[in-house]
Amino acid sequence: MKDRLSELMDGELDDKSAAEAIEALGRDHEAVRTWRAYQLISDAMRESPVLSADFSARFSARLAKEATVFAPRASRAPESRRWYAVSAAAASLAAVAFVGWMAFGPQPQAPAPLAQVQPAPAGELKPTIVPLPTAANDYLLAHQGFSPRVSLQGMAPYVRTVSEQAVEPRK
Amino acid sequence: MLVAGLCALGPAVAYAQSPETLGWLRKMHDATQKLSYSGTFVYQNGSRSETSRITRFVDASGANTEKLEVMDGLPREIVRTKDTVRCYLPGSRLVKVDRRTERDFPALLPERITALARHYDISLGETRRIAGYDCQAVVLTPRDNLRYGYRLYADVNSGMLLKAVTVDAAGEQVEQFMFTQLTIGGVTPDMVKSRHASRSWRVEDAGAAPAQLPGWRLSSELPGFHKVIELKRRLGESRSAGQVVYSDGLAAVSVFIESLEGRSDPVRPGLSSMGAIHIYTREVANHVVTVVGEAPAASVQRIANAVEYRRPQ
Question: How would you write chain B as a 3-class SS string?
Fold first, then answer.
């Protein structure tokens, strides 16, 4: 089906096959998701403005934290018409990431050297460790009631409030 | 190569779980709703361990009241009825009150138990005797590193949860709850009343009510965690705050948003931890954002870093 949708997008199907593919879109949710992902990618390649204004900045920030190094060969991506190569399962997030890369990432003629892409340590910057907030108990009490876990365990999780021991300064 | 990388994010997989395993989770859920019991349990995280008494009374109509008394450290008594949680703090002669309609509690409903299999592999573990009860272990192993894993031990006969262990990605224990004594039945309504109930202590009512928080959003949600409720409330004596709760069906993360205006104590941005609970604080748009959740530190931090404010159009 993915091949068919890809061909449909590229106008490579004859009328009968096209009608079948379109008919499939009317009943198959998975096919619709795939179709949308292909459209997004297509829009990005044509530089249609489908993304919010600050997408680039946010995407760049996330890309910088991304452990996976995306460093495709410069000439490959724009030539690729294999829409179906993007797994439909990855459509929602990954397709947007892909689109973001296509739209705002390093341009094909000036690819980023591998060394410049720094994989972040374990996916996230190391946080500053601070003592529990002075109002920690207010937050904890307000939070516990919303844990679905209470349905399995009753009130026991409410014990997770700060006692005297816990508010002693840490080393 | 890029495309290959994207595909590596994984194909859709059908997560079939055995009906027997899910049946155990339902049994635990039902026991929690239907049984009257009283017992003593120990909560342990790292070197900290605290003993508490817990008593639950379910009347003939199914309405239930539950009382938790913390025996170690700061004295606390918490009583929860269908729509109200009251926390009695004898040290400061204070009662904190939180009222909600029952539908606002994102309860783990039996029909949602099946959905847990999307985020956790659920299997049966060993059988073990705990506090005199023969227990069956149900093991929830997370399918990613965004959430903790759990080992839940339930009484074979009643389904009552006797022990719950939270484990991290390395399989190390993060915290545990374990009954050291439990009596099922034999509870009277008096036993779930707070002994401080008649005192005229100061009352702090959270005044929580579902509400929209215009302009506040997450730039990206954490996979599997969906927004379950958005409300306004008070924290402590008078601080007005927004609270948005995200959950994967078992673990929950709350985002608290408070204005910095009129705040006297300084904000300490960063991460603090207590057992499986992590708290991450940062400033966003002249507000302090405090994210509290029973999830790995990186998950709590990711949600905190995704909080953004956009002036409503």
Answer: CHHHHHHCCCCCCCCCCCHHHHHHHHHHHHHHHHCCEEEEEEEEECCEEEEEEEEEEECCCCCEEEEEEECCCCCEEEEECCCEEEEEEHHHCEEEEEECCHHHCCCCCHHHHHHHHHCEEEEEEEEEEECCEEEEEEEEEECCCCCCEEEEEEECCCCCEEEEEEECCCCCEEEEEEEEEEEECCCCHHHHCCCCCCCCCEEEECCCEECCCCCEEECCCCCCCEEEEEEEEEECCCEEEEEEEEECCCCEEEEEEEECCCCCCCCCCEEEEECCEEEEEEEECCEEEEEEECCCHHHHHHHHHHEEECCCC
Instruction: Report pLDDT for B173.
Output: 95
The mean pLDDT of chain A is 60
pLDDT band at A152 (very low <50, low <70, confident <90, very high): confident
Rounded Cα distance between A156 and B250, Å, is 15
Residue B6's φ and ψ, nearest 5 degrees, are -65, -40
Asked if A127 lies within 8 A of B161 by C-beta distance, the reply is no
Quote the ipTM score: 0.90
In angstroms, the CA A51 to CA A161 distance is 43
Which residues from chain B sit within 8 angstroms of residue A150, using beta carbons?
A: 105, 107
Q: Rounded mean pLDDT of B220-249?
A: 91
Residues of A in contact with B100 (CB under 8 A): 145
pTM recorded for the entire structure: 0.70
Cβ separation of A142 and B235 shorter than 8 Å? yes
The answer to whether B43 faces chain A, any CB pair under 8 Å, is: yes
Rounded average pLDDT over A104-121: 37
Cα B118 to Cα B150: distance, rounded to the nearest angstrom:
15
CB contact under 8 A, B73 and A164: yes
**pLDDT at position B68 over 80:** yes
Q: SS3 of A68, please?
A: coil
